[in-house]
Write a structure and sequence with these properties.
- The chain has about 110 residues and is mainly β.
- Helices cover about 10% and strands about 50% of the residues.
- The strands form two sheets. The chain has a five-stranded mixed beta sheet. A three-stranded antiparallel beta sheet has the order 5-6-7, with no helix packed on it.
């Protein structure tokens, strides 16, 4: 994950392209940031809990779209419940992540590395 962050910063940063509110919760959302590391497309997915200035942010997924078959591009990032998110790649790989009451995901997933 550290390597992906460094590469994203070298490529000019990322832009938030999607924000998805958790069902039944107005204080939690998935934020997808799309960018590039050099010429490789990248998608980073974060859980944001609360609003500024008390906002907390946790990484939940990192997807590198430069895989040789392009099956690791992020196709979808959605909530399946107020405490569970699902990320799907263009190749059909599915990642489910549970989010604790405080907003912290139980793991960070990645594809294409």
């Amino acid at each position: 994950m550290f390597f992906a962050t460094v590469l994203a910063n070298l490529g000019g940063g990322q832009e938030a392209t999607r924000r998805v509110a958790a069902p039944g919760r107005d204080d939690r959302r998935l934020v997808v940031e799309e960018g590039a590391a050099m010429s490789d497309p990248l998608w980073n997915v974060y859980v944001h809990q609360r609003d500024w200035p008390l906002e907390r942010r946790w990484a939940v997924g990192c997807f590198n779209g430069d895989a040789t078959d392009n099956d690791d591009e992020l196709r979808e990032a959605v909530w399946t419940a107020p405490d569970r998110s699902r990320m799907t790649t263009t190749g059909g790989e599915v990642f489910e992540v549970t989010v604790a009451p405080g907003g912290r995901p139980d793991r960070v997933v990645s594809a294409g590395w």
